[in-house]
């Protein structure tokens, strides 16, 4: 397995590459994984979200256990919404409560698929080859907005605020998800612990089926959906999401007043 990260350098530039032993071996880009020859100490760099997706495809009802709990039928095609690129933050950055919203904010710990090559109408085999690697996602939701208007469920508004898509800390290529578990902690208390093997659609199936609806580009992320244990985040609380072999994504919910201090 290889670990890939994205950083800001001291001069404000963005660098991407393979991380090993505290050093970044720089590559041209995610979609052009050609080494530049530069080797940089990660201690002199500021971590960013590991990719800059043009879009985030977020699945709903993609785990058998949650479908059973909600008494929902298992879908025949991935059910998804799109989160905007501007909602992305990396590990360690703050989730910001919107000024206009005082309601419940919810975490969802998820596996993220990072696309490595352009993908359209892909077979399962082509889809598998299009996966650059895997990361972690916290699909944050302003839950009270979903059904605020009884005539139109507001999925994109509720999930699309700035900072409402936490991704990181890295992308791991060659990761075997089949036996892995995702654990979500809220202020140190375990809230989610579920097997990725319980997914309705495997990662390759997700990429293949979604690519029949829209073109997936390098750097795009598919958030694979979550399972049981979703809950709300109080202001000041920290959510950590972990998968052994990928790492830990950690973000704290803050208010604008807290950020100003």
From TrEMBL:
It comes from the Bacteria. The keyword Electron transport does not apply. Keywords: Metal-binding. Residues 55-253 form the Fumarylacetoacetase-like C-terminal domain. InterPro entries: Fumarylacetoacetase-like_C (IPR011234), Fumarylacetoacetase_C_sf (IPR036663). This is Fumarylacetoacetase-like C-terminal domain-containing protein. Coiled coil: none annotated. It comes from Paraburkholderia aspalathi. The gene is yisK_1.
